[in-house]
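pinned: reference chain
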Amino acid sequence: MPVYLPELTQQLTFPPVHQALRQPDGLLAMGGDLQPERLLLAYQSGIFPWFSQGDPLLWWSPSVRALFPPGQLQLNRTLRKQCRKMQYGCSVNIAFEQVIKQCAAPRPYQLDTWILPPMQQAYIQLHQLGYAHSIEIWHQQELVGGLYGLMIGKLFCGESMFNRQPGTAKLAMIALQHHLQQHQAGWIDCQMPNDFLDQLGVCHFPRQQYLALLQELAQQPYPASAWQPHPFKLPGYG
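pinned: its structure tokens
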């Protein structure tokens, strides 16, 4: 059966998210562009872009969202021991472009990437405008893990993560939540649930519940000074 998708025009609007398809879950619209104004409107509306090489630009708002509430992520004994042994360092916004390129790099189980060059450039531009941010994990001045995403009010909308050593992607998530909670936030939106997130204890929010939380958190400004590039330490190790 053919699927009808609204096609976006140059006008900065999206269809109502309740019109998203059930199969594939959350597919809402196609087309448009990745200019900063459209991307910001998308995230503020509970929508994000996700497409592969050869596909049109696709926009999604899934029926269930994966979120970490404040305090949900903690260092377990194994990771704490590994952190002390490896003496990892954490930082904010020191290597945003390196992080996004590492997230886009091929992986043993996934040779292609959805973080295509236009996506990379769009989020680098958002970073330069002060909306997109990265968390980096370092070992002896080598970047071994990290993540990036957008801050919408007091909600961090995660986009992707990577690890070059076991556990460093998880450590980046814990470091992000710790950093956010220094300024009385800590909610992390991870878009769609998956096995990795479930292992970390992610919560599943129905779309309407997510949208209500988004509306609440989006109205609460997060201090821009918190995202000045700097290193930091996680409490309890190091």
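why pinned: The CA atoms of residues 35 and 122 lie 7 Å apart. The chain has a mean pLDDT of 92.
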